[in-house]
Structure formats: structure tokens, C-alpha cells
Design brief:
hydrolase; 16 helices; glycoprotein; 10-stranded mixed beta sheet; AB_hydrolase_fold; globular; alpha/beta; single chain; Peptidase_S10
């Protein structure tokens, strides 16, 4: 090929520019990157209260309370004072022969917190420990995945009010006794029985405004507990105000996992990294199983009527378990694929609780299995603590209907405020499935939300738009970008702000 002189000069100039750009390309030093991150973090954290050593004064007059006292300077590996707290086992009834006990850890509010309120938190499972929520989500100190040692949690919910973490039902964590519950009403009765015993030891907490909170299968627990309290006025000397349920189990798996599964993969194609032939096969199965187009056709604002099950059954038809098909394929591409937050990749960071997926670097023994930790928090020394129990806390299964078809609508009507929260990077329970649940549910005389959920409508202090939010008739729904299943862990600033709204400390969602 023959070049003209002009062509040669043009080509040379282009090459010179390319070399120049390469030589003078972006070269950020690590300290410059870190400085930008620190400044961003300051903006991100500006709205949070930081728990200090001092706590609001709560003096408990009962001598029985003293045996539960935990010195905030004596918690193993925590090299700062987290302030006073109380923990241990209490029975689920006043029966002198009662052998069933639940483990709790109670913290009073930090300096900015309210002494008029009490937040109750439970994890789900069923059978997963609320100490996971305590240590990695909303407790006063945090030891999360990949963290070298515990750090103060500036987004602790103790910066809002007193918080009570309870390992329940019987069979969970350090809790004692043989599980015997048949359904959610049994669970609620035992939990309320425990709370009655708790208030006998800590009577100064009687009459406080109560907020029931939890995640995952606690999306079933919490509405039933609230319903039990409303149906048994006078049984509990606390004033129930509202509830938080995040990434909640509210309906059938076909609704919350199967229908939205392929849509979810398409939304995050670059994360799943499936090849095109497999994606085509998923789309064919989606068509065959009558999941394709379900959201566009049926999830309307307002709803056009009751939302149908795709194949007329609450069970997943044979050959239509697309969720498991996707999960198994995802593990081939990425052995550390995390259904709780899909952004994790192999190798995973180590986790002081050994979950989820930290198979390469799991601490042994787990933090709550260490003898010195058990002694510090008055936990039974002979229990082999696991984050999620190996035994069935419902020995013969949970006989209750999902709460969306039973108690949830009436509880929303009785609460001052109810929030349902969903992390958008959660695959085990998918946000589109929660939208289906809401649009198929009737409360205060109307079905679902009447007007659409606006994009970018959830504005987080210091961040800007971080998802969506929508409020109608006492129910506020949030979707949180970047967050997985455990919203207070993966998006603590958003979770803190949502709790402020639930408790009336913010006027708007």
C-alpha cells in the first residue's frame, strides 16, 4: 500500500497522540484514591449519630436485672467501650417448670437516642440467630465480612432508641428447650410470653412504644407477632406502633422466586455472566412456565383484579424451578455466588460468623462459640452455637398461611406505620416478587398501590437517589439499590434513615 505524504503525517500525528495519551494517562496514587474515598464516606455518613461510651441512663431496680449486666469494656476483641447492656436467657412463661428459654441482648439508647421507644429485632430462617443481626447489621458494634476486628457501628439502631435482639423461636442460637411450635400463632404466643418475663426483670421498660422489626423469614414472624399483640390487648405492657420487615417472606416461593427469576438475571446479565445459549434456554423455559411478561401484564397500578398464579398452583410445576436452575449455573461461573448479594465473587472474604459462603477462611471457633465470649454475655457454655440452626424449629413444618394471605393486611391497618424494605441485589427473595405480593393484597378497602412506584424516589442523605419508595394507606415500600438481603448490613445509611421514618423521627420516607 502506498501512502501519500499527507496520509503519512496524519498517521504519525495520530500515533503521537496515542503515545502521548499513554504516557500522560490517568495515574492516581493510592493515597489520592483513598482521600477521595474518605471524603465520600464523610458525606455518606454525615447524617448518622455515632454511639459513644455514654448511654442514656436507664436504671433497673430489680435485683434480677444485675445478673444479666454486661460490662461494655469486657466484650472479647472489642477494644472500645460499647456501654452497658444486659443479656442472657429468660423463660417463655412464668410456669415454674418451664424449660424453654430464649436468649436476648438488650442495649439502652446512645446519647442521641430516645428513651421512650423500644425496637425488637429478630432474624428469620426459620431458626437463624438474631445475633447475626446484632453483630453484622444494626448493633452498637460491628464485625462484618472481611473486617479484621470489631468496629463501632455509627449506624447502630441504638442511636435511635433501646434495642432488644432475641434469638427465637426455641431451637435458635443459644435458646434452650425442645421446639414444639406448630404454626406462627404458637411462635407469637411464646415470644409474647418471653417479653412478659423480660418486663418483669426490666419493669422500667413497661409502657414504651414498641417497633417490631426483622428480615427474611421474619417477614412471616413479625406480622403474626403483631397480630397476636393486637388480638390480646393487655397481654403485653408495651404500646405497639409499627413494624419493619425487610426482604420478607410474605407469599409462596413461586411468587417471590420463580416468576421474577429470569427478569432478575436479565437485569444483572453482566454479573451472572451466562453465555447467550444458556440465556436463550432460560427464556424458553420462562415462556413454557408462563412466567414471561407476568410483571407487565398483571402488576399494574392500580391492579385490575386479583393476580393469578402462573399455572394455577402455589407449587412450582415440574421443570419450572428456574430459580434453582439459575443458582446452579451461577455457581459454575462463580463458586462464591452469593444468593444474598449477587455481587460477591470468588474467593470470598472471611466471615467471623462463617456465613455466607466463607468456606476458604472461616474462623474456628466462630465468635459466639468462644468460651470467653459466652461467659461475657451470660450464654450457656455447652451450646454449639450456629448462625442458623440444624434442627427444625417447626418440627412438623409451619402450618400458617403466608402473612400476605392472612394477618398482614389487618396489621397494616392497625399500625401507625408499616415499612416493607427490599434490597435489589437479593436473589433469594426478589424485589419484583414483593411487588407482586403488594399489588395482590387488599388493605384499607383497596387492592395494592393505586399509583405507580416512581423511579429514583428514595433519596438518602449524603447520597441522593438510592432506589424507590412509595407510600399509600399506612404502608411504605422501599427498594434499595446495591443492597443485598441484609439491608442494614449492606446499606446501613439507608436502613437507618428508614427506621427514622418508621419511628416518626422523619416526616417523609
Amino acid at each position: 500500500m502506498v501512502f501519500s505524504f499527507r496520509s503519512f503525517v496524519t498517521a504519525l500525528a495520530a500515533t503521537t497522540l496515542f503515545v502521548s495519551d499513554s504516557v500522560q494517562g490517568r495515574q492516581l496514587k493510592k493515597k489520592e484514591i483513598h482521600a477521595k474515598q474518605v471524603e465520600a464516606a464523610r458525606r455518606f455518613q454525615s447524617s448518622a449519630a455515632v454511639r459513644r461510651e455514654a448511654a442514656k441512663t436507664l436504671n433497673f431496680s430489680s435485683p434480677a436485672a444485675q445478673k444479666f449486666f454486661v460490662d461494655g469494656k469486657s466484650i472479647p476483641d472489642v477494644d472500645f467501650d460499647v456501654g452497658p447492656s444486659w443479656s442472657g436467657l429468660l423463660p417463655i412463661s412464668g410456669d415454674k417448670n418451664e424449660t424453654r428459654e430464649l436468649f436476648f441482648w438488650f442495649f439502652p439508647p446512645g446519647p442521641q437516642g430516645s428513651t421512650d421507644d423500644l425496637i425488637f429485632w429478630t432474624n428469620g430462617g426459620p431458626g437463624c440467630s438474631s445475633l447475626e443481626g446484632f453483630l453484622q447489621e444494626n448493633g452498637p458494634f460491628s464485625w462484618s465480612t472481611g473486617t479484621a476486628h470489631p468496629v463501632p457501628n455509627q449506624f447502630s439502631w441504638t442511636n435511635l432508641s433501646s434495642v432488644l435482639w432475641v434469638e427465637q423461636p426455641v431451637g435458635t442460637g443459644f435458646s434452650q428447650g425442645k421446639p414444639n411450635i406448630k404454626n406462627e400463632d404458637d411462635l407469637a404466643a411464646q415470644l409474647v410470653g418471653f417479653l412478659q418475663q423480660f418486663l418483669l426483670v426490666f419493669p422500667e421498660l413497661k409502657g414504651k412504644k414498641l417497633y417490631l422489626t426483622g428480615e427474611s423469614y421474619a417477614g412471616t414472624y413479625v406480622p403474626y407477632i403483631a397480630n397476636y399483640i393486637y388480638e390480646h390487648p393487655g397481654a403485653l405492657d408495651l404500646n405497639l406502633q409499627g413494624m419493619w420487615i425487610s426482604d420478607p417472606s410474605l407469599s409462596f416461593d413461586v411468587v417471590q422466586e420463580q416468576i421474577p427469576a429470569v427478569n432478575f438475571v436479565h437485569k444483572y446479565e453482566n454479573v451472572f455472566s451466562f453465555n447467550q445459549s444458556f440465556m436463550a434456554e432460560l427464556d424458553k423455559l420462562n415462556d413454557k412456565c408462563n412466567y414471561t411478561g407476568y410483571m407487565d401484564k398483571f402488576v399494574t397500578f392500580p391492579p385490575k383484579g386479583p393476580l393469578p398464579l402462573p399455572n394455577g398452583s402455589t407449587r412450582t410445576p415440574k421443570g419450572c424451578d428456574l430459580w434453582d436452575t439459575i443458582f446452579n449455573a451461577a455457581l459454575i461461573v462463580n463458586p462464591a455466588f452469593n444468593i444474598y448479594r449477587i455481587f460477591d465473587t470468588f474467593p470470598v472474604l472471611w466471615d467471623v460468623l462463617g456465613f455466607p459462603g466463607s468456606f476458604e477462611n472461616e474462623q474456628t471457633p466462630l465468635y459466639f462459640n468462644r468460651t470467653e465470649v459466652k461467659k461475657a454475655i451470660h450464654a450457656p457454655l455447652d451450646v454449639d452455637w450456629k448462625e442458623c440452626s440444624d434442627i427444625d424449629v417447626f418440627p412438623h413444618g409451619d402450618g400458617s398461611l403466608p402473612p400476605a394471605f392472612s394477618v398482614l393486611p389487618s396489621v397494616i391497618e392497625k399500625n401507625n406505620r408499616t415499612v416493607i424494605v427490599h434490597g435489589l441485589a437479593d436473589f433469594i427473595l426478589i424485589a419484583e416478587g414483593t411487588r407482586i405480593v403488594i399489588q395482590n393484597m387488599t388493605w384499607h378497602g383497596q387492592q395494592g398501590f393505586q399509583t405507580p412506584i416512581a423511579n429514583d424516589s428514595f433519596l438518602v442523605d449524603g447520597v441522593g437517589a438510592l432506589g424507590t419508595t412509595h407510600t399509600e394507606r399506612g404502608l411504605t415500600y422501599y427498594e434499595v439499590e446495591l443492597s443485598g438481603h441484609m439491608v442494614p448490613q449492606y446499606s446501613p445509611v439507608a436502613a437507618f434513615q428508614i427506621m427514622q421514618y418508621l419511628m416518626g423521627f422523619r416526616d417523609k420516607p
